[in-house]
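>> Question from a student workshop board

For tomorrow's exercise we were told to take the sequence and the ligand below, predict the bound structure, and bring the output to class. My setup keeps failing. Could a helper post the expected result so I can at least see what it should look like? The ligand is flavin-adenine dinucleotide.
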Amino acid sequence: DFDILIVGGGHAGAQAAITLRQGKFTGSIGLISAESFAPYERPPLSKDYLAGEKDFDRILIRPESFWAEQDITLLLDHEVTAVDPGAHRVTTADGKSYGYGQLIWATGGTPRRLEVPGHDPQNMHVIRYRSDVDPLMASLPQTNRVAVIGGGYIGLEAAAVMRKFGKEVAVIEAMERVMARVAGEPLSRYYEAEHTAQGVDMRLNAKLSSFKITGQKVTGVTLESGETLPCDMVIVGIGIDPVVAPLLEVGATGGNGVRVDAHCRTSLPDVFAIGDCALHQNKFADGAWVRLESVQNANDQARVVAKTILGKPASYEAIPWFWSDQYDLHLQTIGLSLGHDDMVVRGHPKDRSFSVVYLKKGRVIALDCVNRPADYAQGRLLIMQGASPAHDQLRNINVELKEMAG
Ligand code: FAD
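>> Workshop helper replied:
Here is what the output should look like for this input. Compare the format with yours to find the bug.
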């Protein structure tokens, strides 16, 4: 039994354990993970780890020895399948049971897959865990043509890496533009043009109809238009489903994620939830219920829970930020553009350095900054202050954003 039991060994779970020990928590801490590896960073899986530029050791959140040194018990290869909130116990798939004083649920989400009825094709991959990516990388030498399904961040990052390897790449996006869920149209159009210039066959409004199967492999992706794009690898990047069933089954409030309050408490006694699986009211979305999928959110919510457990209750109010690397384009996002009613493009996309500023009722609520780190840093100020600079001012790159802060 553990005083604190953390379920999930990703960014959120690891950070919660780390912050508890940093805060001199002396009770017992158990960290259960369905994965076989000590906590590691997920973003490199579609970036430099996938590109073979960074070894696994370099993406570990802490060195392998850290956990034992900090007296944090790692229980790897254990999937929690049930929670008994009355008895304060969890059960794992292999029938083991662990008691807890307080439970921190940090399970993230499982990648959505595409079913091919009657088949389990070996060359269809998702990118979420190391166990997804290593087999993908191992089959690259036999791969020439890659079909990426989904034009979100992960699909586009994977497409960029595949181009670096010289593969023929097609990106198949069902919507009218890439990154439609998270970015404004100017950003989408810029990235579409960039991928096209890099040799990617970009297919927008392209709905999948079926897969062509030969043996145990997908050898073509057929679109509703009737066209078949030949391929010898498929990468599916169509989002995740939060892992919350064991909590919802015992009455936790939620749906697409488990609902938490400002201290990341679920509706179950002594059960917190953090990271990709936590549905929370975000101040930067006017208090709307959101589930953020970012390292920032995972780490900051972990810190809130650790502080609350340490007796210094904190509320989750951190400003959201995110990044994405594709080719030589370093995108940094600050704030949440959700609900924007206006946009200003600052700088010139052709210079490979520009920002999209999102406004709502005249106030700056978010920025997407492409190779413009100063805008990213200074834009934060504008958002925090609810500043409302004129469009002309925002457009003028000779004036720094910080000069527009009040
Ligand atoms: P996860 O990191 O998913 O960790 C969840 C852990 O829980 C996993 O170890 C899982 O095995 C385990 N688990 C799940 N269910 C159970 C169970 N029932 N029992 C036990 N263990 C369980 N964010 C950014 O900010 N910037 C980026 O550039 C970026 N790039 C990304 C690229 C990729 C390829 C991916 C997949 C994600 C990326 N993200 C990025 C998102 C970011 O990685 C996630 O938001 C973050 O990992 C969330 O942390 P988490 O701890 O909530 O979930």
